[in-house]
Specification:
Blueprint: H1 2-13, H2 17-26, E1 37-42, E2 45-51, E3 56-61, H3 69-81, E4 85-90, H4 91-96, H5 98-107
Length: 116
């Protein structure tokens, strides 16, 4: 497991433009008070973003994911089997339609409660 945490740290330090952009809006409970973590090891994978109290995982996909659709589907199934909902967004979508992405994330966060 330590290897996953080390790899996750490296991914945080080498974040894509889309990951850095979205993190700007998610960090420090800025989105409805919910705390998100980035590059978080879980279920044998590393989730791009996770909100543990809301049981929500956000995955950002670049062009390389077109060649990994089967892998991504299995990854989603495995994470969902842990009781999490997975939302996937294309990098371009995050960069060009940030408000729409944030609104979609908000729709999947529990209403009437703050992150905690």
């Amino acid at each position: 497991m330590q290897r996953k945490w080390t790899f996750a740290r490296r991914l945080r330090n080498e974040a894509t433009d889309a990951e850095r952009h979205l993190w700007h809006y998610l960090r420090r409970g800025q989105l409805a008070g919910f705390k998100f973590r980035r590059q978080y090891p879980m279920a044998g994978y590393i989730a791009d973003f996770i909100c543990i109290p809301a049981r929500l995982v956000l995955e950002l996909d670049g062009g390389q994911h077109l060649d990994a659709l089967g892998y991504d589907a299995e990854r989603t199934r495995t994470i969902e089997a842990q009781g999490y909902r997975v939302l996937r967004f294309w990098n371009d979508e995050v960069l060009l339609r940030t408000e729409a992405v944030l609104e979609e994330v908000l729709r999947h966060l529990p209403r009437g409660s703050e992150g905690g």
